[in-house]
Design a protein that fits this description.
globular, 3-stranded mixed β-sheet, alpha+beta, 12 helices, about 15% strand
Length: about 325
């Protein structure tokens, strides 16, 4: 095989936005090469008994996880996505103690695959008769995700992500319930390209395209420093998710990148500093009222129970004395 002289151009040229082509390489699908790729890998569906549990799409449509699939060719499914999923299965089965030291680019690729695939599914999903819009997402929005697709393509094109990485990744220890159905949680925000996933004793939250800004903000500023001392209850993980999602949404810069092709066809990705030459802070001001509304949606608790004017927002991470708060997941 000849080395790629312009992997970036070839990647973007191969991009598809329909059911008839592979989500990853863009090849036209037919009877001989078509496969269906589960967005949430089968090892998760089996381990957490997720087959009949449901994912809610942006317009309210719900699908059982067994039907959360996207079009993919056999080669990409077996060789590229399959290899990634098999590696992640091995890492996650080892548990939090080993998983916390996972290679960040690997984790980024896997989370990128899940988030981009869900957005792709929402693009190609037919209209639900209960709603007026023909599609859940329109192609105009999806075209803004060129960089997300470029990064996802690193699973099939040799890519080197230079530090500082284009993402912010947080890994937490979470509690496991005796009821396996309570050991999974998922959330995403397409606008800020944030994603959160909890499986057994591992919780992961990431901003996939923030050039490391949320991570650089620091655990103290995010209000999550105490999490290092806790095995998080599901509601505590939801709070951590809300804090990171909200912070990512406060970024007032557009992340930019340089993609450079090396002579051997490798794609090199360099994240440019968000601060640039401007003296304006990268983050807009944190507003408790806005954060409380996001926390309400994430935790499924009424806003009025969370936000108390003059006293701030209720937290599940600390007790009244300000100490880390342990909440047993199976407390009777």
């Amino acid at each position: 095989m000849k080395p790629r002289s312009d992997p970036v151009g070839e990647i973007l040229e191969s991009r598809s936005l329909d059911k008839k082509h592979c989500i990853l390489c863009g090849i036209k699908l037919g009877a001989k090469n078509r496969s269906r790729e589960h967005i949430f890998p089968k090892f998760l569906l089996r381990a957490l008994n997720l087959w009949e549990q449901k994912l809610t799409l942006l317009n309210g449509t719900t699908l059982p996880y067994r039907r959360v699939v996207i079009p993919c060719c056999r080669r990409c499914n077996n060789q590229h996505i399959g290899r990634l999923d098999r590696t992640m299965a091995q890492k996650m089965r080892a548990g939090y103690t080993k998983f916390k030291n996972i290679n960040e680019p690997l984790m980024f690729q896997w989370l990128s695959r899940i988030l981009y695939s869900i957005l792709y599914l929402e693009l190609i999903t037919p209209r639900d008769p209960r709603f007026s819009r023909r599609k859940i997402l329109k192609k105009d929005f999806f075209r803004t995700l060129e960089t997300a697709f470029l990064f996802l393509s690193s699973v099939r094109v040799k890519t080197h992500f230079h530090k500082p990485f284009p993402w912010s990744l947080f890994i937490f220890k979470t509690q496991q319930s005796a009821d396996v159905r309570r050991n999974f949680d998922f959330a995403d925000n397409p606008l800020s390209l944030t994603i959160a996933l909890r499986a057994n004793d591992i919780g992961v939250v990431a901003a996939l395209q923030d050039n490391g800004a949320v991570k650089a903000l620091g655990e103290g500023a995010l209000g999550i420093r105490d999490t290092k001392k806790l095995a998080l209850h599901p509601i505590q993980f939801s709070e951590v998710t809300a804090r990171i999602f909200y912070a990512a949404g406060l970024i007032n810069r557009v992340p930019k990148y340089m993609t450079v092709s090396s002579p051997d066809g490798k794609m090199n990705v360099v994240a440019l500093p968000l601060q640039g030459l401007s003296s304006t802070p990268v983050f807009n001001a944190w507003r408790d009222e806005e954060y409380a509304r996001l926390l309400s949606r994430t935790c499924r608790i009424p806003y009025e129970q969370l936000y108390h004017p003059g006293r701030g927002v209720l937290t599940f991470l600390r007790d009244e004395s300000g100490r880390p708060k342990y909440i047993p997941v199976d407390d009777a």
